[in-house]
Write a structure and sequence with these properties.
Blueprint: E1 2-5, E2 12-15, E3 19-21, E4 24-26, H1 32-37, E5 46-53, E6 57-63, E7 70-76, E8 78-85, E9 96-102, E10 108-111, E11 115-121, E12 125-132, E13 141-143, H2 164-167
Antiparallel strand pairs: 1-2, 2-10, 3-4, 5-12, 6-11, 6-13, 7-10, 7-12, 8-9, 8-11
Length: about 180
């Protein structure tokens, strides 16, 4: 397993050791002992899978309170996956990191609690998987506008397909402090 640090402290790209031959391939997508040795989470409580068509953009989502850390990967297709640091007081507040995740590169992206998360589908379709450190809590569900100019995510698509929730999410500057995580808390 190879870890690639990003400019957002705590958010890391994980390249698993892949073993393959003419029959196919094998890799460990999660191993508590190995993850723990690298300071990554060793407990997940919810697993989600979604399927989306080309151009679908989901995000930027987070929960507060009851934040979720997410270990994300793509089982089929390709996406641009994005994490945004929304922790009040963080030196990287409002900054983003984007990673290409695909069935071909088998990369995973660890997005710690306190970050907003989203992705856009680049292939004809994608099957997306994520392990979460807390369960979904409707009352804690929140989002940041996908095209917030203060954040400036370069999604690489001009007219993504969005849910009503994502279309009308607030700008980061318009979210009250009590609805944002705190750095170091």
């Amino acid at each position: 397993m190879n870890l690639i640090e990003t400019k957002l402290p705590g958010a890391v790209v994980i390249e698993p050791a892949v073993f393959g031959d003419a029959r196919g391939f094998f890799f460990e997508s999660w191993n508590a002992e190995r993850f723990g040795q690298h300071g990554l989470p060793t407990k997940f409580v919810q697993s989600n899978v979604s399927s989306s068509a080309k151009g679908v953009l989901r995000g930027l989502h987070y929960q507060w309170p009851r934040p979720q850390g997410k270990l994300v990967s793509v089982l089929q297709g390709e996406v641009l996956d994005v994490a945004v640091d929304i922790r009040r007081g963080s030196p990287t507040f409002g900054q983003w990191e984007g990673v290409i995740l695909s069935e071909a590169n088998k990369r995973q992206f660890w997005i710690p609690e306190g970050f907003a998360h989203g992705f856009v589908v680049l292939s004809d379709m994608a099957v997306f998987s994520y392990l979460c450190t807390d369960v979904y809590v409707k009352e804690a569900d929140a989002g940041v506008r996908w095209n917030d100019p203060a954040i400036g995510v370069d999604w690489g698509v001009e007219a993504p397909l969005l849910s009503d929730k994502d279309t009308h999410a607030p700008l980061l500057a318009d979210i009250t402090e009590d609805r944002l995580p705190v750095f170091g808390a």
